[in-house]
Amino acid sequence: MGTGASVARIPGAAAPEAAGSPPGAAASPAAFVPPAGTQSVPHLVKKNESLGTIVAHYLPGSVYMRRSDLESAVRQANTLTGNRLQPGVQIMIPGIPLEPILDKPQPTPRDFLAKGIYLTAYSAGSSYGLDLIQRWKDAGGNTVVFDVKDFDGLVHTPFEHQYSGTSEITIRNLPKFIHCLHTLRLHAVARIAVFRDEHMVENYPEMAVHSRATGKPWRENGKLVWTDPSNSEVQQYNLDLARMAANAGADEVQFDYVRFPAEGDQADAQFAYQKDHPDWSRSKVITDFVARAQEMLHAQGALFSIDVFGVMAWARPVDLNHTGQNIADLARHADVMCPMIYPSHFFGFDGYSTPGDAPEHFISESMQRFELATKGTTVVLRPWLQAFGWHTKSYSAEYILTQVRVAHQQGGVGFMFWNARNDYAKPFDAMPNLHAALSAPPPAAEKPAQEAKTPGAEH
């Protein structure tokens, strides 16, 4: 990966770059060396203002990634030894870039061998997340998937839009965060949960799926969570968000929940397309939207990936009719398809009472079917693999390696590990042996894929 465009060097994610004394210690002005391409700006201390609040205010606009790094630089630049600041005193804030930090998507082939982990927006915007990113890089990883918008609908980075829910900004400077990933030569993937959006349906009920019986927003098993995937304003909002992420430098934008609701009273659910395009199916709506997203993101220089239900490879009419995810059609309008094939979620499949303890079987079955369903297209299959111990007694480093090996043998190009809590202890344990798993030859003979009995899983 390249390092992108920027005018100021961001100090490393693991440690401050500024030279001088540690935080809290006295230092001479000559000992402090500001980062290249930056300036110091004056700040007049106000009454009851602490160093911590000052640092928090300036951090997003500085080249520093951590509060502790900026605080250390402020202390060194001003020879501060204590914690108290006198009102009316002027201090200098170092590390402010001469020009805004900018970045752009790095040209990346779609069959790039991604080795990725998922980070929530809360992790990505924290010191814990920065430590995790550095550790993943050091272990041999090369990809980080991070939330821009999860299914709660909150956008976790500044985004000026009438529908955005930006009450919890955790990635306060998205171009700077992406530039940090690029500096570490990591592939940056911005994840957007598309049509499941609790914020939008709660605050803009006209954007929700509606009940035929009541005319009010429709609920899936009692939960008010689904926007109408065929509503043109809902679609445009998510396209605008994807464009923003690509403009900030994301190498790839990944759509999750790019589907219709799969559960609840389907007969009672009313959608805009049934009036606007009565001859369309749900799959036509989803495929048309995905095609527009890919065209837009390619114009921005970014790759486009989509997450899909693991069960969709079986193409059962009930699943297709509900979700609208036609794998063969979607494969023609995405660079990367990411099947969510967590073994523990395949309840009732193939006679296994504990599917979570049969990763080899379920990864193999799933990948074979996705390979067949996407045959003749240029889409790359990069699966989401299970990095959590739910409903399995065999979760271990070997469990991780088995999934990686079998997915690779069955046509997968790279992988991403999913853990909602961002706990990747087992994947880290597996990383020293990962190269062997990705070099394993395909099986000598492959058995036909078996019929499915029940749906797969989603994040």
State the main characteristics:
single chain, 459 residues, alpha/beta, Membrane-bound Lytic Murein Transglycosylase D, Chain A, TIM Barrel, nine-stranded parallel beta sheet, two-stranded antiparallel sheet, 15 helices, 31% helix, 14% strand, globular, disordered N terminus, disordered C terminus
Tally of separate helices: 15
Briefly, what CATH class of the largest domain?
Answer: Alpha Beta
**CATH fold-level topology of the largest domain:** TIM Barrel
Uncertain ranges: 1-7, 13-29, 445-457
- Whole-number average pLDDT? 90
| Fraction in beta strands | 5-15%
In short:
This protein has 459 residues and is an alpha/beta fold. Helix content is 31%, strand content 14%. It is built from 15 helices and 13 strands.
SSE order and pairing:
Layout: E1 38-44, H1 51-58, H2 67-78, E2 90-97, E3 115-119, H3 121-124, H4 127-139, E4 143-149, H5 174-183, E5 187-193, H6 198-203, E6 210-211, H7 232-247, E7 252-256, E8 269-270, H8 273-276, H9 282-300, E9 303-309, H10 317-323, H11 327-330, E10 336-340, H12 359-373, E11 380-381, E12 384-386, H13 397-409, E13 415-418, H14 425-430, H15 434-438
Parallel strand pairs: 3-4, 3-13, 4-5, 5-7, 7-9, 9-10, 10-11, 12-13
Antiparallel strand pairs: 1-2, 6-8
Helix pairs in contact: 1-2, 7-9, 12-13
